[in-house]
Amino acid sequence: MLKKGAKKMSYYHYGTMVTNAAGHLAIGGVDTLDLAKEYGTPLFVYDTALIKQRIQAFKEVFEAAHVAYKITYASKAFAAVAMYQLIAKAGIGCDIVSGGELYTAQQAGFPMAEVTFHGNNKTAAEIEQAIAAGVGTIVVDNFSEIELLDDLLAKANKTAAILLRISPGISAHTHEYIMTGQEDSKFGFDLKSGQATQAFLEVEKRDRLHLLGIHCHIGSQIFETNGFEMAAEALVQLLAQWHQKTGFDAQVMNLGGGFGVRYTADDQPLAPQDYVKDIVADVQGKMAEQGLKMPAIWIEPGRSMVAEAGTTLYTIGTRKDLPGIRNYLAVDGGMGDNIRPALYQAKYDTFLAGQPEAEPTQKVTVVGKYCESGDILAYDQQLPATQPGDILAMPTTGAYGYAMASNYNRNPRPAVVFVENGHAALVVKRESYANLVQLDQTLPENF
Ligand SMILES: Cc1ncc(COP(=O)(O)O)c(C=O)c1O
Ligand SMILES: N[C@@H](CCCC[NH3+])C(=O)O
């Protein structure tokens, strides 16, 4: 049954999404039905104009506040050679969390000085790779890493600019799997127990570690600014203590990412730059109160940079109607290209790319093709009548979609296209069956 007053899909006005003259969803001036035909489905479509607009909006906030800053894209949200190149062209940095992300950024020709390296268990090989590449900043996460990094720097006869990741003991309002700032967390030096200050004193003793300042990331998909403000308060207090102890002035305060985005009509986040505006004003006030020098503010948005820019196109296949229970509508992708509903109970909306403005006439649950009952992409979708072969659009899939994709059931991972100004560019090819077996070895005879 259709909910009374159910919304037509025309409320989606992310970036350049429009209903074109043919009555189809177009993104970046390109008809999405043409994209589906040319590149196949499932297909990730990125509106690069929206990504550039987000970057510009973040920059303008800092410029208006007259604060030194650095924007680093958290590339775990979506990492690919073309993405690193787009980010480099926009003149901002990126953060990486693995040797694989670092390697991809290197392949993209990303300026290494603008890279920040995160992670709670960077391996010696990854740290050596980062030192050799000339990665700009390393965010040190724990005591073992202080030792390891110092040793590896001595071996390479180099120094490194570092930040200390602080776990401020703030529980942000978000899914517990994507909370990171609470006391009971695997990330960072705990503030409350004094580990953060202990780490500071440890680092200050070591000549090869050049401490720029502190980092904190309280979690992801956060809608309220008060969590960020509580974290800022904790960090400023900590810097005040360090200043008192040794006269240390931080050059950098990195406040992480986490700015929430709209997945469904029920989500009402602030514009991403408005979170930053509030946080910057708050830090300025608090630093002044303490009589401390204002550090540069760094942010690391991932989701807010790319989530709303990404839309997945699927082809509708089979259906199973259970009167009075549920109507299942299956598409040609699922948990292999979007694990978020299964992992975080994340909600999404869908609409027909061929008729985004059509009145809904049915309620269906959109499921994938994977061999799991939990492979449900979106519950209770209000859609017009559908036929096998219709293209279903699922917006806001640009962050942690392709990035978390898998080959489960030996389904190849989708292709990714960038669209802008009427042009489409294939930036990640669809995986082939041959790709799926390229690392496999035949069984030796003695087995
Ligand atoms: C250290 C760090 N910085 C930045 C981010 C990006 O977060 P988001 O994608 O929510 O902006 C994350 C992911 O949560 C993170 O762990
Ligand atoms: N992958 C998560 C966010 C975790 C971010 C990494 N710390 C998501 O899809 O929401």
From TrEMBL:
Top EC group: lyase
Active-site residues annotated for this sequence: C371
Pathway(s) the chain acts in: Amino-acid biosynthesis; L-lysine biosynthesis via DAP pathway; L-lysine from DL-2,6-diaminopimelate: step 1/1
CDD domains per record: PLPDE_III_DapDC
Residues bound to pyridoxal 5'-phosphate: G258, E300, P301, G302, R303, Y400
Alphabetized UniProt keyword annotations: Amino-acid biosynthesis, Decarboxylase, Lyase, Lysine biosynthesis, Pyridoxal phosphate
Keyword Ribosomal protein: no
Pfam family, one: Orn_Arg_deC_N
Subunit structure and binding partners: Homodimer.
Record's protein name: Diaminopimelate decarboxylase
Species in which this protein is naturally found: Loigolactobacillus bifermentans DSM 20003
Encoding gene per record: lysA
